[in-house]
Structures are given as C-alpha cells and as structure tokens.
Amino acid sequence: MQEPRLDHVQCLGARGLHRVAYWEWGDAANPKVLVCAHGLSRQGRDFDTPARALAGDYRVVAPDVAGRGQSDWLADPMGYQLPAYVADMVTLLARLNAHTVHWLGTSMGGLIGLGLASLPGSPVGKLVLNDIGPTVEPEAVARIGSYLGLPMRWPTVEAAADYMLGISQGFGTHTREQWLALTRPMLKPDGDGWKPHYDPAIAVPFRAMTPEIAKAGEAALWKAYDGIRCPTLLLRGADSDLLTRDTALAMTQRGPRARLHEFANVGHAPMFVAPEQVAVVREFLLGP
C-alpha cells in the first residue's frame, strides 16, 4: 500500500507566516496535478483511497488546511476563513510549480476550490465539488456547530472512532477497518490518550456567523460560482442535509452548469472509500 510523502510550504497570513502541510502521492515530476481538499474539521489523509487509485495518472496532493492535521495553528482565529485558505492554496500551487490543476474538494475544500476556480486566470482546469454549493442549509450548520471545537479526549483510538462515527452518519456505510483508517489521522497523542487533530479555534469564525453575514456570503459564493468556466462535476449524497437537491439542480443550470451525480444511502458527505464513488471521480477527471 503506497504511503504518501509529507512536506510543508510557508504561507503568509495576517499575523505572519504559518506552515501548511501537504501529503503527496505519485510522481513528483508529473505535470498533471490533482489537489484534494478536505472538509471543515477533517484533514488531507481523508483522500488516501482515491489518491492511491489516481496516483498512476496524477501527482496527487492533499493539503492539511491551516489549523488542521500537520499544519500550523493560526495566531488569529479569524484567519480561519475562505479567502485566507484560497490564498494559502495559491502559495501551495506555486510551490508545486503547477500551472494547471484538477481540484477535488469536499465541503469546505469544495468552497476553496470554487473560490480558486472563479478567479481570473485560474489554474483550475477541472473542478469536482463534493456535497457543497453556494447555499448551505442552516440546519446542517447548526449540526456541525454542535460539536465543532469542543474539548474532547479519548482513552483509545477505538473510543475516538466510536464517537466520530456518531457525528458522521452522513459519511455512509464503512467497515470497521475502513472507519479506523479514516479515524487515525483525525487524532493527536495526548498523554496516554488522544485528542482531535485540529485547533479548537477553527470554531471561532464559524460561531461568529450571523444570518446577515451568511446571506452576504451566499450571494458572494453564487457570484463566484457564476464566474467559473471550467468543466465541473457536482457530487451529492442523496440524503445530504447541507446541499439540497434544489441547490444542486440550480448549479446545473447556471455558472459552469455542473454535471450532477448523486450517491444513494449517503448524506454529507461521500468519503471516496467506496469503489463506485472513486470511479465516478476518475471517469470525470480523466475523461474528455
């Protein structure tokens, strides 16, 4: 089983420099680059399965967004927002010397890709948005907010896996072995136990969101989406509480007119462990 390489790139934030970690599979000299970007409280190793499947075709890179995984935590919690993440990814692409990239983004990682793809002269040649769009349902935001940033500690990896399974029902069905593989990178050692891998302060800007800010953000995201020109695939868990079918259908009618594919018996969000999920992504990315 191919293990990824770990590297870091230095990025500039509002309060100085911070290091962003990234995991890499495949030939480092391959000019075909696929960036895989994770969700709000996740990290780059979520993409182990699709990265291994695509490493023969791409240089696959999965960053740990600032504040997560092996990346530095930010001095200012208000730096944990989309514009800063997009800026970090521009720095990462410069490090990779990637002039064009394909982008696979889950939830927050999809919004980062959406923002990057909407920029004039964007390097994004193909975009896969995994269960995310410009309109995010308030009920899903409240659900995520109920656990994000809570002080947690578990005596064993197995106990952590049980807890995370409880808050991750939307990910769909996985074997115990698959779930433990998804759980281990989510943990950091803490004495004789384990704690979450991320800075609890990522919840600060999330909790500072007001209905007015959310509405303005939604309008800005739709404007950005309408500016995307690259081929776009929209994936949706058929039971998703975050991306409604109405929003998904609207995304097929405007902007890049995304191709929509829904996965049955999955909510927010598909995790690309199931072969059929990887196959849909592969067909789109490697197709004409």
Architecture blueprint of SSEs:
Blueprint: E1 5-13, E2 16-25, E3 33-37, H1 48-54, E4 59-64, H2 82-96, E5 101-106, H3 108-117, E6 124-130, H4 138-145, H5 157-166, H6 176-183, E7 187-190, E8 193-196, H7 203-207, H8 211-226, E9 232-237, H9 245-251, E10 259-263, H10 275-286
Parallel strand pairs: 3-4, 3-5, 5-6, 6-9, 9-10
Antiparallel strand pairs: 1-2, 2-4, 7-8
Folded structure, characterized:
This protein is α/β, with parallel strands linked by helices and 288 residues long. It is 34% helix and 22% strand. The chain has 10 helices and 10 strands. It is globular.
Computed over alpha carbons, the radius of gyration is 18 Å
Beta-strand portion reads 15-25%
Number of helices: 10
The end-to-end distance, rounded to whole angstroms, is 29 Å
Number of strands: 10
* Cα shape: globular
Mean pLDDT: 97
User: Structural class, from secondary structure content?
Assistant: alpha/beta
Uncertain regions: pLDDT < 50 for 5+ in a row? none
Helix content: 25-40%
How are helices and strands ordered from N to C? EEEHEHEHEHHHEEHHEHEH
Order of strands in the sheet with the most strands? 1-2-4-3-5-6-9-10
Characterize the main sheet.
8 strands, mixed
Short recap of the structure:
This protein has 288 residues and is α/β, with parallel strands linked by helices.
Features of this protein?
288 residues, alpha/beta, 10 strands, globular
